[in-house]
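Input.
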Amino acid sequence: MAVGVFDSGLGGLTVLAALERRLPEVEFVYYGDNAHAPYGVRDADDIFALTCAGVERLWQEGCDLVVLACNTASAAALRRMQETWLPADKRVLGVFVPLIEALTERQWGDSSPPREVALRHAALFATPATVSSRAFQRELAFRAIGVDVEAQPCAGLVDAIEQGDMILAEALVHSHVEALLRRMPHPEAAVLGCTHYPLMEAAFRAALGAGVAVYSQPDLVAESLADYLDRHPDMLGRGQRAFLTTGDPAGVSRKATQFMRRGIAFAAAE
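Output.
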């Protein structure tokens, strides 16, 4: 019983941890494309090609269902994959939809027309590629009307987190929040649109202030996947738990252990 979890690097480990808590009976195979990280500065065609290659590798591990635990890949590649590339017997899910469903108070699979919701002003913090894709705004528009979204590209933040430089990461969070607040002084909600950012959630909350609701993805994605598997138990694959990387396994393992504060051993994704 295996489900694949794909990310450009280590950020998806925050989603994996939530998936393991919510679905302890499921084996997860994690694939980090660390050799090509970060994706946030790449163009859409490059992200599409790299994401497809990673998903195909997870299929080889017996994972018929893959979660893109990477907002950049979800934003730049997922819809194109689903429309032009995905075989009929495979499924790839992203991390945007569960978040937007929570924002708009919709149940999974609610395909009714977009409607007015209580939320009026939302801040999005994400990588430059996610922001430029406008995928968040597009998916939101399918479900809600009248929501003003101000997006802030958080250049440098993923690199600082992956390098373990939390002093720099915290300074960048405050700088990016200040830049957004100059354009949208009173957001009602803030979306942490990168799976690295939950590690900096406290810094975002402090910079935004107590009046802003902060939405982070891991637990929302885990609940959504649990619901999906209840309805599609046939999508559980045949693989066994593993951590794979396109980078140097020893170096990635050290960073992952520091990143998640527990021992994680990666193997080469040959």
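The radius of gyration is 18 Å.
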